[in-house]
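Protein record

Derive tokens from sequence
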Amino acid sequence: MVRRSVGSKRFHHKSRNGCGQCKRRHIKCDLRPPVCSNCWKRDEACDYQLRDVDSFTQSSLDTKQSMDSSGANGISTSHSRAAFGEHLYFGMPIYPKASLTSKTQPFCRLHGPSSEDGLSAILMDHYLVRTSLEFAPAADSDSNWNQHVAYASASYPFLRHALLAISGLHACRTDVVNAELYYHAACFHAVKASALFRSTVTDLNVENWVPVAEFIITSVFFNFDVSFVSQRFGDPSSSLSPASIVRILRGPQSLKSQMDPLVFSHPRANNLQKRILQHRSPTDQESMTAISRLEGACHAETTTSGSLVLQSTAQSLRQWAQFVSCQPKMWVHFFSWPAGVSEEYIEMLESGCGLASVIFVYWCAVMSRAPKLYYLIGTMGTLAHLAIKDLDGEFSELLEWPLKELQTNGGISFE
């Protein structure tokens, strides 16, 4: 018998159920989903979560076919999203507590024990391989974002369901044949994430603030994305308007006072501030001139009720445009202006106030310069259309610059 020499590496040969990386190294895999400890330590992509995906896929497709044949697929998606609340926020403490009520149970039964595990595996696979790589702006991307969020989700179920929710919406774009199945699954996991977050997170502390922050970012962009995706499926509970989008992007503001002390006391806080400064670039003077012209028009308006609100909102838009150098690159850039506007402005936007709508279109124009993330493509043009569709020719001169920007950056015609 060949004896192992002293000091040589002792290989582990029983890793048939482990991830591919552990198998190749002949080391024991701890089978910890979604990323095993060995891959986490080496900062490598772990494929443990991808085992048996083919069988899971077939199981899920069989479930979809049985749903279609039984007519169960006709259940209104409003049931699955009933717990979102009026503005679709899931996970923001200032909104009504979400729960899996009796209204959501018919939908939950569609994804019972026989199919949920398989479909969840497919969605986590999709998240790890596709969604996570296309979700964050490059300026916010961390080499570990994909693995860190997935790793944290193993300890925080509300985060895991939130990841499955955004993965489901993303899969709607990449798999047209099964898009409706993924849409329903995304809504299901969003409701689950909301219920789990509200029932388990009672305060923010040094232990949980990072996964909570990751959850908030994920939840905000789920609500943003689902506002558009739901239109494809004729969801009667869907609501898309300029005001609803501003409210969604204001979500992180609700936890700002609690989150800021934890963020800025973190060892990497200086890195975050440096990154924000690093992505400043020379301001586009043509854009700033156009925005200043809009601000002047708002100051000249004294007859409209709420003229002071319009003036302060236009001023905040100019300050925001300077802050982002007229080219939003980071999540903090996306949130900043909506977080700073008043509820009075949102109500004016909701009521169809002309100048309020024009201000919003200017924000859309600057946002159209943001990175072409999958959930932003085409959205600013759609929102601008909604904002100006009922405006008369009074604002045509003011709208020249933002509409030109939207056409240039999004390839959208406003004729």
Notes: Residues 85 and 96 are 7 Å apart (CA to CA). Residues 52-240 form one domain.
